[in-house]
Specification:
Layout lengths: L14 H22 L12 E5 L55 E5 L1 H8 L13 E15 L9 H14 L5 H21 L4 H20 L10 E12 L1 E8 L6 H21 L3 E8 L3 E4 L1 H6 L8 H15 L6 E8 L5 H15 L3 E9 L5 H4 L9 H6 L9 E6 L5 H9 L2 H9 L1
Helix pairs in contact: 4-5, 8-9
C-alpha cells in the first residue's frame, strides 16, 4: 500500500517530517486492518474491505497559545463598562476560544483496500521462526540477477560506463573531429587574420582553405553526435530460481466432546490465520491437518475446518499420527518441522505421561518451533471472582515442564475471539520485533 501526501507545503516541511507523517498514517491503517479482523468470519478473513482511521490521529502537532495562563497585553477599543486599571475576571472554562468543539465534528478517513493491500498490511511483520537451510528445493523464480546488457530498458537501469565506452568507440571509428583539432584550426585562422591586419600581407587564399576546412569539420562534428541512441546500453536483469528451504506445518486440533462450539471457533480462527499467513508468505511450506478425539486422523482442509466429528480425548494420538506422517513423508533431516496445537487442555489422566514423553523426547528434538494454544470458555467463573484469567489445565501444567529451548516451545491462552489475532502475532512475529515488544 502506498500513501501519497498531496498536501501543500506552505510551512516548508522537511522531507523527514513528511516521511514521519506517512509512516504514522500507514501504521494507523495497518492497526485498523488488524482491528477489523476481530469481527470477521473465518471465510472472510482474506477479503478486501473498508477501514477507517480518526482524523485527529493524522494531525501534525503545532505550537499554539494556551487558552488560559500566561501574561498578555491587549489594546482594546473604548467601552462603557471598564476604565483603565480595572481588572477583568477570567471567563469560566477559558472562554469561547478554549478549544471546545461547537457543532459538528470532523469525519473519519475511510480507506477501501483491495485484497492484495489488505493482506500486505495484515501479514507485514510475520515469519516462521528459526527457518533453517536444510534440504533446499529449487522452486519458482524468487529473485533476479544481472544478465548482460540490452539496447532498451528503464532509464534507471542505464549503464553510464558501458554507454560512454560505446560512444567513444563509435566516434573513433567514424573519425569525429576532436575538440582540440577544431581549437587549433580556429587559432591558426585567428593568427593569420591578425598577421594580415598588422603587416598587410595577403593570406586570403590560405585563410579561405582553412575556413573551408573548419566548416567541413564543423559539419562532420554535428553529424556525428557525441552520444547516439545506438550507444545506449541498459543493464538487463532476468529472473533466477533461488534455493528455498523446505518446511512443513503440522496443525493439531482437539475436536473432542469437551471442546464447546465457542472453543472450536477460537481454534479454527487461529488455524485460519495461520493457513492464510503460510499461503501468502511462503510458497514451499506444506500444511498437514490432523484432528483428534480419542483417535487421530490426517484430513484435508475442508474436513479440518468444517467437520462436526466429536468423541473422547487422547492427545497422544495426535502426536503419534504426526510422528507417523513425519516418518513417511517429512524427514527432519530434510524438512523444517513446525507444530501448532490447539486444545482446551483436557486429557485422560492415564494419557498425560505418554503425551509429555512424545512431545519432549520425540517432537521437540526435531522441531524448529512448537506453539501450543489453549482455548477456554468466553466467560470463565474465575474471572468473575477476580481470579486468574483461566484455570491451569492438566495439559497446560504438564507442558509447562517441557524445556522451551530458547523459545522453541511457546504456550498461550485465549478465551475470546478478540484475543486470537494479538496472540497469533505474538507467536509468529519476527524475532527482532517480538524481542522489542517483550522488553517494552
Amino acid at each position: 500500500m502506498h500513501i501519497v501526501d498531496r498536501r501543500l507545503n506552505p510551512g516548508g516541511k522537511s522531507l523527514v517530517n513528511r516521511q514521519r507523517f506517512l509512516r504514522r498514517a500507514k501504521a494507523l491503517v495497518q492497526q485498523a486492518v488488524r482491528d477489523s479482523l476481530k469481527d470477521r468470519s473465518i471465510k472472510d478473513l482474506e477479503q478486501e474491505g473498508e477501514v477507517t482511521i480518526p482524523r485527529d490521529e493524522v494531525h501534525e502537532p503545532s505550537f499554539r497559545r494556551g487558552a488560559s495562563g500566561g501574561n498578555r497585553e491587549h489594546i482594546l477599543p473604548g467601552n462603557k463598562e471598564y476604565l483603565s486599571g480595572d481588572q477583568i475576571e477570567r471567563p469560566p472554562g477559558g472562554g469561547e476560544g478554549a478549544g471546545g468543539h461547537q457543532g459538528e465534528g470532523d469525519d473519519e478517513f475511510r480507506f477501501v483496500l483491495s485484497r492484495e493491500e489488505f493482506l500486505d498490511l495484515f501479514l507485514d511483520d510475520l515469519e516462521l521462526p528459526e527457518l533453517a537451510k536444510k534440504k533446499l528445493t529449487s522452486g519458482e523464480a524468487e529473485g533476479v540477477r544481472q544478465a548482460g546488457y540490452s539496447t532498451s530498458g528503464s532509464p534507471s537501469a542505464l549503464s553510464i560506463g558501458r554507454t560512454m565506452r560505446n560512444s567513444m568507440s563509435r566516434r573513433i571509428a567514424l573519425k569525429r573531429p576532436r575538440g582540440e583539432d577544431m581549437a587549433k584550426l580556429e587559432a591558426e585562422i585567428a593568427r593569420l587574420e591578425a598577421l594580415a591586419k598588422d603587416t598587410g600581407a595577403d593570406h586570403a587564399e590560405e585563410l579561405a582553405k582553412l575556413r573551408e576546412e573548419y566548416e567541413r569539420l564543423e559539419r562532420r562534428r554535428k553529424l556525428i553526435t557525441y552520444v547516439d541512441p545506438i550507444d545506449l546500453r541498459y543493464r538487463r536483469f532476468e529472473p533466477t530460481p533461488k534455493p528455498i528451504s523446505q518446511a512443513v506445518m503440522f496443525c493439531l486440533m482437539d475436536v473432542s466432546g469437551s471442546m464447546t462450539e465457542h472453543m472450536k471457533d477460537l481454534a479454527k480462527r487461529f488455524y485460519a490465520l495461520l493457513h492464510l499467513f503460510l499461503k501468502r508468505c511462503y510458497r514451499h511450506v506444506e500444511v498437514v491437518f490432523i484432528r483428534h478425539t480419542d483417535r487421530a486422523e490426517e484430513v484435508d482442509e475442508e474436513t479440518f475446518f468444517y467437520s462436526r466429528e466429536t468423541g473422547g480425548t487422547l492427545v497422544s494420538t495426535a502426536l503419534e499420527k504426526m510422528l507417523q506422517v513425519m516418518k513417511d513423508r517429512y524427514s527432519p533431516n530434510d524438512w523444517n518441522i513446525y507444530v501448532a496445537q490447539a486444545s482446551d487442555g483436557d486429557n485422560m489422566p492415564s494419557d498425560t505421561a505418554k503425551t509429555i514423553a512424545l512431545m519432549a523426547d520425540e517432537i521437540m528434538p526435531v522441531a524448529q518451533y512448537v506453539a501450543y494454544l489453549e482455548v477456554g470458555r468466553e466467560e470463565d467463573p474465575m474471572m468473575a471472582m477476580g481470579g486468574p484469567l483461566m484455570r491451569a489445565s492438566d495439559l497446560w501444567r504438564s507442558y509447562g515442564q517441557i524445556d522451551g529451548q530458547n523459545g522453541k516451545f511457546v504456550m498461550r491462552k485465549v478465551h475470546h475471539r478478540r484475543e486470537i489475532y494479538p496472540v497469533f502475532r505474538e507467536l509468529f512475529a519476527k524475532r527482532g520485533l517480538a524481542a522489542g515488544r517483550a522488553q517494552s
